[in-house]
Amino acid sequence: MDGKATLSRTSPRILACLAGIALVAGAGTGHAEDDVVLAPTAAATVGTVAAAGPVFVPSAEAEFEEAFDAFDAPVEPDLPTHAVDIATIEPAVDTGAPLGSGVASYYADRFNGQRTASGETFSNRELTAAHRTLPFGSRVRVTNPRNGNSVVVRINDRGPFSGGRTIDLSRAAAEQVGIVRAGHGSVELALLD
C-alpha cells in the first residue's frame, strides 16, 4: 500500500491530532500563541498542500485544561416527568393553632418509670408533657417568650392540678425551653395536630 492511499483514507481530525503531537514533540515552542501549523484540508488528504493559509492549533496543555473544564461543568440529570425537584420546595412551617399562654413546670425525677394517665411509662428523657384537657398523642409547641426557645412535646399524661400551672413538661423538654433553673416559667402553647 503506498503512502498516498493511506493519507487519503485518514480523516482530517486524525491529521490534526498528529500535527499536534508533532508540535508537542519539539516542532514548536510549546506555546499555542507562538505556534501556527498548517492544518490538513481535503486537498492535503490527496497529497497536495492547501493554499488556505495558517490555522491556529492549541497546545497540548490548553487541550488538557479544556478537557478538564468539561468535567467541572455541572450536568443537570434527566428527570422523569413525575419527578419533583426537592431543592425548590419550601419547608412547611407548622404554625399550629394558638392555645394561649400559661405557666409550665416540669416533672421531678421521682416520677421516672411511673405509669402516666395514658398508660405509658414516664421518662424524663423523652419530649412529653401533661395537660388537663388535650387528647393523648396531641403535639404541642411550647415556646419560652423570654428566650425564644421552643420544643414540640407529645401529651401523654393529665395534669398539672395545682399551683396555677398550665402544662407539666418532661425535664428534657424543660431544658430545651430553658425553665429548669427557675423550676417554672411563662410559655406560649400552640396545638400542631
TrEMBL record:
The keyword Ubl conjugation does not apply. Pfam families: DPBB_1. It is an enzyme of class 4 (lyase). GO terms for molecular function: lytic endotransglycosylase activity. Its EC number is 4.2.2.-. It comes from the Bacteria. PANTHER family: ENDOLYTIC PEPTIDOGLYCAN TRANSGLYCOSYLASE RLPA, ENDOLYTIC PEPTIDOGLYCAN TRANSGLYCOSYLASE RLPA-RELATED. Belongs to the RlpA family. This is Endolytic peptidoglycan transglycosylase RlpA. It comes from Aurantiacibacter arachoides. The lineage of its organism: Bacteria, Pseudomonadati, Pseudomonadota, Alphaproteobacteria, Sphingomonadales. The gene is rlpA.
